[in-house]
Design a protein that fits this description.
Layout (H helix, E strand, L loop, with lengths): L8 E12 L2 E12 L3 E5 L6 H8 L7 E6 L2 E2 L4 H6 L1 E4 L11 H11 L4 H15 L14 H12 L6 E5 L7 H16 L3 E6 L2 H4 L4 E6 L2 E6 L1 H8 L4 E6 L2 H9 L4 E7 L2 E6 L2 H14 L4 E7 L3 H18 L2
Parallel strand pairs: 3-8, 3-9, 6-7, 7-8
Antiparallel strand pairs: 1-2, 1-4, 4-5, 9-10, 11-13, 11-14, 12-13
Helix pairs in contact: 3-4, 3-5, 4-5, 8-11
Length: 321
């Protein structure tokens, strides 16, 4: 099979499904990832993110559907797919009993990097990961943020056009997470396509485009800005009050309210008409003896969008016979 032309997608999934016994982990998922973009796959643990990424990497065989990665069929040519991608799992895929340098050498051998280029690529990884002074340190002794950057370097040693990152920042401190995303941007600027799974809503904001997955189903795709304007064009209400749980229970019973959820000590409310909802909510909370400190219209976060879509998905499923 010929490789994709420059105008085609780097990754294509068509009705991709995976079943384990009687459990369907991924249900007819379809999407495309453009060359050079950062595509985020957003969803909670158990949503089907890792199963999807493993199918696209040629590690798991789909139960049905089709996938094309770097111009190769994931079912018919899984080994070709593996040659043209980088893959980093949330466990970093490193050998803790080897030194930093030995891990790099090992993965250089796995990827078949020739001797002339091996040294150059090794020094690049050490510089990128900030580990030049720790090349002889045991990997097991490294802080998690350093391990993370080393694993990323090992995943792109062979300069693949597509990089798959499966929950790469899980268990890593916020500063290391931010630096890791700086590295992702750097790779993307060089034309590498990055496919990243995450359950962190703030990380999803860094992506060019998102696919939101819940219960094995793709429930929405688009840029962060488009998703917000599409599903909550009026924005949302943020309510600060003295009894948030009592207020939430009261608000959820109002016909003017589509959905409401606690966000820290605040309540976020979605409604078909924000202006109409404000007056109704104020009156209801006053009758319930709840003191409102502030009620204001704000721009929705991706977390607001995700909660809205998942609640709608649940409601639609319950209405089906």
């Amino acid at each position: 099979m010929a490789k994709n032309s420059p105008t085609e997608s780097a990754v294509t999934a068509e009705n991709l499904s995976k079943t384990f016994g009687s459990f369907q982990a991924v249900k007819n998922v379809s999407f495309q990832v453009k060359k050079g973009e950062i595509f985020g796959f957003l969803g909670p643990n158990g949503a089907g993110k890792s199963t999807t990424i493993r199918m696209l990497c040629g590690i798991l065989t789909p139960s049905s559907g089709k996938g094309i990665v770097a111009g190769y069929d994931i079912t018919k040519q899984p080994e070709k797919v593996k040659e043209h991608i980088g893959y980093m799992s949330q466990r970093f895929s490193l050998y803790n009993d080897l030194t930093v340098e030995e891990n790099i050498d090992f993965f250089s051998g796995i990827y078949g990097i020739d001797r002339k280029k091996k040294k150059e690529r090794k020094e690049w990884v050490l510089a990128m990961a900030g580990l030049k002074e720790h090349r002889r340190s045991l990997t097991s002794e490294l802080p998690s943020g350093w391990k993370q950057r080393l694993a990323l370097g090992c995943a792109v040693l062979h300069e693949p056009p597509i990089l798959f990152l499966d929950e790469p920042t899980s268990g890593v401190d916020p500063i290391s997470r931010r630096r890791f995303w700086d590295l992702i941007y750097e790779l993307s600027s060089k034309g590498i396509t990055v496919f990243v799974t995450t359950h962190y809503m703030d990380e999803a904001e860094y992506c060019d485009r998102l696919g939101m997955i819940y219960g094995g189903k793709l429930i929405a795709t688009g840029t962060p800005h488009w998703l917000k304007s599409k599903y909550m064009p009026e924005g949302i209400l943020e309510i600060l009050c003295d009894q948030p749980q009592k207020a939430l229970n009261a608000i959820l019973n109002l016909s003017e309210v589509q959905d409401a959820a606690l966000f820290g000590n605040a309540i976020h409310v979605s409604a078909a008409s924000i202006d109409n909802a404000i007056g109704v909510i104020k009156r209801e909370l006053s009758l319930r003896g709840v003191t409102v400190q502030n009620i204001s219209k704000i721009s929705p976060s991706l977390e607001d969008i995700f909660i809205y879509l998942t609640e709608n998905n649940k409601a639609n499923a319950e209405r089906r016979p």
